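Bench notes, bay 3.
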Amino acid sequence: MQPDSPRDTPVSGTYSFDHADLGTSKGSADAFVGSRYAGVLDKIVVDGATDTPDFRLAISGRSVPLHTDFHAIVDGTSGDTYLQPVKARILNSSLVRTVPSKERRTRMGTCGTGRRGGSGAIEDLLKTAIRTDPRS
């Protein structure tokens, strides 16, 4: 602890947990989360990953495997968290999203190839969002 400047207190460690509830709405999001962090209290660098073998959206009810890798900066004095970037894989498709520092929420809407990154098949994303099999 830095008594004269608590914001400069060094922090570091690792954490992991099984069966994390990452869902913010109806649907399944039982995941494994693991990461490592280091820095000072007002700028903690976090690198981690999540694995959600049974990810599903309430709208479709279909489950697909979801893996993410993330890099975040956390201000431990305010709780502000900035994701930069999040890399996700749904089935065989990749998505990449960087959240600008003023945004509080993001949508993983990048698909296909291009300057934002990501590649994959529309069928993989359709399996996540619709009730019927997109190949039928």
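Next record in the batch:
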Amino acid sequence: MLCKTQKRRLKITIVSEAVLLLGAILLIKPYGIYGLAIAFSFYSIFNMVLLIIYLRKILPNIDGKNIIDSTLRITAASLVGAGVAQIMKYVVGTQGELDTFLAVFTQLVVAGSSGLAAFAIASYYFNVKEFFQFKASVTRKLFREKKL
């Protein structure tokens, strides 16, 4: 049996999925696969907004400004990383034919690594606190002292 909170989250998910399906149906014909990506992006934002509204109802003292600020910083860093990855994809792609697995894999590794590095630098520059928490956690796990 579902409790009240689970029922509410289920309703939010069903409404959000309906928005995704409607968006996909409306956008896939004129824009193709890009329409599907737009629909999924809109669905994700819509779902997040509904969940934040619900969260504010059950936790009225939650710091919404902090959540929005963090989301905007992460989004900005993600856009920087995606832009760099896209640029590097074209740079590597123009160096030769992409007709072998090795060539495509090289493009993936170079573009992905460049995008990840750009995301990390942008997260540092934009002072994304979750980035610093992640970095501290990884550092602790990698360099922890062994207990005797």
